[in-house]
């Protein structure tokens, strides 16, 4: 649905989506053209925790229920030139933004992005009292309504995960001496003599009566034999445990104060911070 001027006030707080439907951020404020008083820019909270403000042209924006769609990519919106969200865009800031979004920029008049004739001049606030009781006008810019908005910075603290270090398993080889005792056997010669008896006389009489002869016995011994084999002993892995601790974060925040400067006869305090 096309946005008209009467819908602009309801855009605050709505979710801005890009042309592909990706969420960009929450609409924080609507900026008006200084000369025409018509809504021209959307100030959108982007970045981590919505701490950055990106400006998007209101031209061709459409209202889709609780979302507002613009014909730009999310990356183009977040890469828009920085501009101070201080209630007013300078001519240089506005010129850079127009160039970034590929729009024509004119120093005299800025297109509101709304259909021609949609803006009702009778709804513009002037320096005189209206039916709603508006008193006075803004000296720092176009008059918007009968009140001044006071804002404060609120600290939004979250967490971001980053790499704190690395742990790895490394396997290497060490050498050590292992001593073991193993029994070994060896054979030795023992000379045995036995007398001639009726039982062995037959063996004794074999062969010549007198001769030269040699007889040998093969001796054996055992020697240690070493063999090595790799045997799995255990499995080792790395696991991660998460520990939670409390940390304090300190940061300066700003808050606007409003005081009244005027005639001493004004009712109530002449200067009071709000």
N- and C-termini, Cα separation: 39 Å
Q: What percent of residues are in strands?
A: 5-15%
Sheet with most strands: strand arrangement: 4-3-2-1-6-5
Question: Order of SSEs, N→C?
Answer: EEEEEEHHH
- Which value, in Å, is the CA radius of gyration? 49 Å
State the oligomer.
Answer: single chain
The CATH homologous superfamily of the domain at 5-105 is named Photosynthetic Reaction Center, subunit H, domain 2
> What is the CATH architecture term of the domain at 5-105?
Alpha-Beta Complex
Shape: rod-shaped
Number of strands: 6
Q: Average pLDDT across residues?
A: 79
Describe, in plain words, how this protein is organized in 3D:
Helix content is 7%, strand content 12%. It is mostly loops and 274 residues long. The protein has a 6-stranded mixed β-sheet with strand order 4-3-2-1-6-5. A hairpin with a 5-residue loop joins strand 1 and strand 2. The longest helix is centred in the middle third of the chain and has 10 residues. The protein starts with 14 loop residues before the first strand and ends in a 70-residue tail after the last helix. The C terminus is likely disordered.
